[in-house]
Each structure stands twice: as structure tokens, then as C-alpha cells.
Known about the structure:
globular; seven-stranded mixed sheet; 42% helix; Rossmann fold; four-stranded parallel sheet; single chain; binds beta-D-glucopyranose; 2 domains; 12 helices
Amino acid sequence: MSKKIGGLLLVLxxxxxxxxxxxxxxxxxxxSESASAAxSESASAEAPSSDVGAGKLVGVTMPTKSxxxxxxDGANVKAALEAQGYQVDLQYAxxxxxxxxxxxxxQITKGCDVLVIASIDGGALGGVLSQAKAAGIPVIAYDRxxxxxxxxxxxxxxDNYGVGAMQGQFIIDTLGxxxxxxxxxxxxxxxxxxxxxxAKLFNQGAMDLLQPYIDSGVLVVKSGQTKFPEQIAxxxxxxxxxxxxxxxxxxxxxxxxxxxxxxxPNDSLAQGIVASLKAAGYGSKDKPFPIITGQDCDKINVGQxxxxxxxxxxxxxxxxxxxxxxxxxxxxxxxxxxxTNAEYDNGVKKVKSFNCEIQFANKDNxxxxxxxxxxxxxxDIPDAE
Length: 385
Ligand code: BGC
């Protein structure tokens, strides 16, 4: 009998130890290890509403309402904070950094206890954040790194370099390049907004893998435009900007030859690129859609994937990121150790950070990933039913 109880106890101790190991933050930025974001997700699902935030006001600023993801991020962060008893001041800035700086100033004046900021131009917040620092208000950079200031305390994001690497690897695998396919395949590259530090990381992650194939002539960028940000950046991540640039590329370089690959760092750009390709007659037997990458799993883009217009996207579960920010906020205010698993150099300091996990999405797994997980309803997605 006592042996049995001893055995049971041993199993229990091992289970507790395993769970603790899964929950402890890893000291790496690699996508595989960043899977330690998962415990937060389950914590958010199971944690009952509480009042740990009672009497505390959190200022949340998001860049724009014009892209689907920031509406979701804003709503998720607000709801998760409110479930913990915090009061929330949520603002959107119409993609203008001076507008966002004004909103942050107001939040400082209102006496916010913590500021959560998804910036527009990450290098242009130094002035307003030195006011926050002087007022002793902790700052969490949300998804986008805030650079060139020491007045940022923590950063919660996804594995941004890993996003670009996943896109680059997808292109390599789909074309069979690592197996020796020589093509040549035509390709054009797009980049995100130059003021967004993530855009640089996405580009680096993809180009570190693709550049050798460009150098050896297997991938041919007919326009010769590969430099980020000088030649390929799209201001404010606007679909229209991507559409216009794609129109110009098609007219200028692809009048007599189809394009095989478009490296798009995210879904808003992929929307513009697909619109341009459709207008130029792509999507037929003679002109199949090129391989097109993306990121965010925006509803419109999942529709594009279903219809065969876009090849892949990357799912960044904003519920997990929101929960991470709530965990950080609560730890900061309770004076406890803040959960981190990475560090980003912002030009002035190394910012302690948490990289959440990214997930690959394509025509084969979008439903399991996005609908079965409860992230979207099937009826939210164009052409899904
Ligand atoms: C985010 C991406 C998003 C892009 C445009 C980036 O900072 O990380 O997920 O697609 O901004 O909104």
C-alpha cells in the first residue's frame, strides 16, 4: 500500500516538474523554443476573471484601425486586461506617429500605471517616452520594438526573424531549390514599412535564405530591386502601395514572361499584389498565380489561400500575445519577475522580451488552425463554405 502511494507521489512530482519546465521562459529567440508561449495560452483559457488589476489604469495605443490585425489586437488586449480587473484606455492612431505621441501624452497625464504601445515609427517615440520615464510609468512595446530610447522596459512580440525565415524556406521548398532545381525562376521582393523594426527583421529572415539562390542565378529578380528599405519598402504597409508597385513591375519587366514568385512579408501587401496580378490576367492556365507568401492570416487572405491566389500565410495568435502582455503587466505591478525568453537590442539598450510562437498556414491546415481553434468562425472567411 505505502509502496503504491510512494509510486503515485513520484509520478505526481514528475508531472509537476515537467509542467514547471514547460512554463519556464527559455533564453532563446529560436522559433522552436519560443513554444513556451503555449502555457500563457492555456492560462488565459483557464484563468477565471480576477481583480488583480483593480484600481489600475493601463494605456494601450495601437497603430491603425485600417488593418484587421490591429483591431483584433486592441480588442483582445482590452478584454484580457478588463477580465483581470484593470481599467483600459485604448487608442488608435491612424498610422501617424505624432497622433500616437499625443495619445500617449494624454495617457501619462491621466495617470496610467502602465503603457502598452504598438508603435508606428518605432524610432520616433523618444521624446514622449522620456516623459513617461520621468513619471515612473513602465512601458511595454507591443509587437513592434521601440528603438533609440532607454525608456522602454519590456517587449512582447512574435519571432519576427522567424517569420521571414519561414517565408524564405517555403519558397525554397516549394520550388525544390535545396534538392537542386535550377530554374531559373523569376521573383520579385516586397518589404514592409521602413519605420517598423519588424519589417527589417522579416526581410533579413527571408533574404538570408534566398540571397544565395539570387547570387547563383536560380532566382532571377528581373527588376534588380532587392534592397530594403530603399527599393522595396511599402509605406504604412498599405495594400494600395503594394498594388501600384506590382503594377509597375509587371508592366516594366514581365510583359513577355510570367512571374514565378513574389516574396510578400505580410497579408496586407499580399492583398495588393494579388489584385494587381488578377488585373494583369493571372489565375488562368497560361498564367498561373505565382508563389505568394504572407503573414497574419487575415480573413481576406485566408479566402485568397482557399481560392489558390496566395500560397501561404503565418498565423500569429493575437490572443497569446495579449495574454503575454497581461502577464507582463501584472508581474511589473506586483514587483515580480517578468516572464521573458529573448532580448532585442533597440540601439540604446537590450530590451527584455517575450517571443510568442508563429505557425505556418496554407490550404491544407487553415481550417484546423484558424476555425477549429476558435480563432475565426467559418462564416468569417470568404469562400470557406
Ligand atoms: C506586424 C505584422 C503586420 C504589419 C502590418 C507588423 O509590425 O508584425 O503582423 O502585418 O505590422 O500591420
